[in-house]
Amino acid sequence: MAVKKLKARLKSSGSRKWLRKVVIGVVLLTLSLYGLCALCVLALRWIDPPTTAVQMERRVGAIWKRRSYRKQYDFVPLRRISPNLQHAVVAAEDGRFRTHHGFDWIEMQKVLEKDMQRHKLGRGGSTITQQLVKNLFLTTERSLVRKGVEFTLVPMVETLLTKDRILELYLNVIEWGPGIYGAEAASEYYDHVPASELNREQAARLAAIIPAPLKRKPAQMHEYSQEILDRMSKSAW
């Protein structure tokens, strides 16, 4: 009996040591990944990203489905993006972008209340910073895990980057159609002008397709683009 008890204790002790090593390994791996993300975000203060996680996701998806894929991506500084488009996108996607610190709790509460009334999940109420994190480091897949990682990275981005740089990155990397990324590529593709020359109407129509860029077309966004223009006017833009 004594021998059996000793063996059982040794086995239990070995299991606890193994479990402890696994936990330590997971913690160290997580910290290393977040450290790498922090370095990447810090580098984004000066370096324009050559690609993003979402752009790579689209390319891999096209290869997997054996579809043709042509990427249009031309990063331009914020000064070469029309203020009309800057204002239209903020009005459409994140009206309190300049005042919040990564999360718009007021908007999130409104979205949650609407979802509870309809008894189903709708749009996520994500801020521009949250959408930028998703584009740079994550994927378009909707899951609680992805959302959790996104929530932990947003404060890092808000701390290490200025609001102008966040907006500049966002306008340059987001998807505006199949293989079309960034304001310059979108304005050239849809309106045949550089991003710097977009007028208010063109800017509002481009901003209107951001929630569903693979389905929506600027020319079809009559009601929503007018709503965006109204929001811009109310903000004196």
Secondary-structure map:
Blueprint (H helix, E strand, L loop, with lengths): L1 H42 L9 H12 L7 E2 L9 H11 L11 H14 L9 H10 L6 H17 L2 H11 L1 E3 L2 E2 L1 H9 L8 H9 L13 H13 L3
Parallel strand pairs: 1-3
Antiparallel strand pairs: 2-3
Number of strands: 3
Give the low-confidence spans.
none
Gross geometry: elongated
Q: Helix count?
A: 10
Coarse structural class = mainly alpha
Could you characterize the architecture of this molecule?
The protein has 237 residues and is mainly alpha-helical. The protein has ten helices and three strands, in the order H-H-E-H-H-H-H-H-E-E-H-H-H. The chain has helices spanning 2-43, 53-64, 83-93, 105-118, 128-137, 144-160, 163-173, 183-191, 200-208, 222-234, and strands spanning 72-73, 175-177, 180-181. The chain has a three-stranded mixed β-sheet, covered by helices on one side. The longest helix is centred in the N-terminal third of the chain and has 42 residues, at 2-43.
